[in-house]
Amino acid sequence: MRSALIFTLTAAALLAQQTDQKRDLKIEKLDEPAPAPKTVSIPRSYAVVIGISRYKSIPDKLQLQFAERDAQSIYTILISPEGGNFKAENVHLLTGVKATLAAVRHEIDDWLPSVAQPDDRVLIYFAGHGFIYQGRGYLAPYDINLDSIAATGFPMDELGETIGGKIKAKNKILLTDACHSGAITPEDTANLNHTLGDLRKSLFSLTASRDRESSFESPDLEGGHGVFTYYVVKGLEGVADTSGDGIVTADELAEYVHSQVREATRGKQNPTSDRGTYDPDMLLAYVPANAPPAKPPAPKYGTLVFEANMDGVEVFVDGKSVGVIQNNKPITVPGLPPGAHTVKGVKMGYEPDGPRQETVYPGQDSTVSIKILIARRHDKAALDLLDDGIKYYQKGYEQNYRKAAEYFEKALAADPTYSKAAFYLGLTYNALYDEQKAAEYYKKAIDIDPDYLEARANYGGMLLDTGNTDEAIRQFNVVLTRDPNHADALTMLAQAYRFKALYPQSIEAAQKAIKLTPRNAEPHLWLADSLRLGGKYAEAKPEYDSYLKLSDFDSKLAGQLNYYVIGSLFGMGRKKRAGTQDIWKDLRSLAWFGICDCERKLNQFDTAIASCERALSYDAQDPYAHYALGLAFMTKAQTTGSIAELDPARRHFQKTIEINPDLQESRYAKQNIANIDKFLQQ
């Protein structure tokens, strides 16, 4: 265990080496209405999260390291049900090259005012550079030009006018971890204090530092973060909830972040938020696990420093991952309440170290050595049973999935530490649409091997099946934080964003997956679907074609080639009962349906009819394909003046109603049938 003196000296030395990576933008909030009573009612919430590390045209010495990572961490805690409780589609994330001036201005000046209502909550987070030019403060978008700051920066007074006048939300939160360098901004940073103007609504503004101070980044904070943002995230996770009621209020977060950042930097950085100018009980996060009878932590916090005997060891504190030890570099976890904490170190293929108890002492740092020593060996009978189960799993269809499940359960019974058997059970029950059992075994695989990214990704896929899309997105973000090139997680993230109607984000994720695995069919499917639903029909068609070509194999091979993520590729009301149809057929039906819809929108009626018929050849009970086929026949009749197409149009509309009378398409189908009958009678 190292003393507190050693820790603070180490922190000071670290910060002294990073003077080229400072964040010191100061923003203040002013007037607001009287405080509202504390409540666990979560308001409808919207957020814009911006992070820029590498700028387009500023000098290398002024580039940042962790601003984009910080933005991703803020995004993840905001959409967490044990955190901000924002809906994923209501949080717009702009990082790197996407955070241009035009994009930032659109999100803040146009989107937020268009969606926020008087009782809502709005949050804006910015991590990047901030500059002063001719007495005015500017946030620096990705494409800022330092020779033309006024024209290419985002003015702080414009932000103030938008927050104060255009955004009507009851509660507004502004978190700024902005960098500014005296080498190129000679004006005093105190000028930034006057840029927001009078605000008529409640605004909680928490900034990284006070006047004339710097704001720091550190690579030792769980893989690298801005010091300010690191503690903001920790606070929103529940550590700042000193009252123990499960609610992180504005005052609690401000107090926690200020005390922890000040201590971590030996007083060199002091976050600011003026008391009395916002509702101190404003709800920032709700963490049910912290609700009574939880006790308030001691007034001073401590630090655990983790080291390991090998690379690639993931460290957990109180059940939450705090990072992966790489290159024998320790992980520092400050800001922990004094007392006993549960720690665990894991590495795939090895027995874990822990869980065990380690004590955090007030104001001190303690070194924890993680020792991964014993390679995990599995029972020979369990290995053989798994292989036998995989043979059945690869054949597809319900009867084979059920037989596979029998073998996988026997394998897990023979070796309870066999995470791969638990993982395959999750896959198999997911394919059988038994989501409860699928979730049980996915979680078991993750419990056995917490760094089992494939199991975590597929668990996220199962959450998509059950409609828990926000939590699925969080799981995929966990995987992608560990492995940004995890193609399966990117593919399913594209699907999740498609379900949320976040088509640009879906397209981006799918394109990344395609770049990583160009021979994998699924990303092409979700790219095509998002292009189509975004109105880009001509661009969508070749992507559907790519999916069909890449998945054009004997359906008996579906289990082998259709990847361990296949159980997640459903939704949109298309899911069938357990295993009554091969998964491969469902997806091909979806692709042909997409082509049909594109061709119909492009007035290519004959090919649209043929494509919808192909979709129905894979799934004759798909109401969407019947409805689209009815539209194609009906539109062709209207265009050509031929009544021959009206009879098949009517049949397919009627079939839509028979299959699922509760669909909106069925209501439209009834209207179309009435119009056809009226026309034929005339």
Description of the molecule:
The structure is a single chain. The chain has 682 residues and is α/β, with parallel strands linked by helices. It folds into four domains: 23-290, Rossmann fold (3-Layer(aba) Sandwich); 302-370, Immunoglobulin-like; 389-450, Alpha Horseshoe (Serine Threonine Protein Phosphatase 5, Tetratricopeptide repeat), CATH 1.25.40; 583-681, Tetratricopeptide repeat domain (Serine Threonine Protein Phosphatase 5, Tetratricopeptide repeat), CATH 1.25.40. Helix content is 45%, strand content 15%. It contains 23 helices and 18 strands. The strands form five sheets. Strands 1, 2, 3, 4, 5, 6 and 7 form a seven-stranded mixed beta sheet that branches. Strand 13 and strand 14 form a beta hairpin. Helix 14 runs antiparallel to helix 15 (503-516) and helix 17 (537-550) packs antiparallel against helix 19 (583-601). The chain is globular. The protein starts with a helix and ends with a helix. The model is unreliable at 1-39, 180-201, 294-299 and 554-581 (pLDDT under 50).
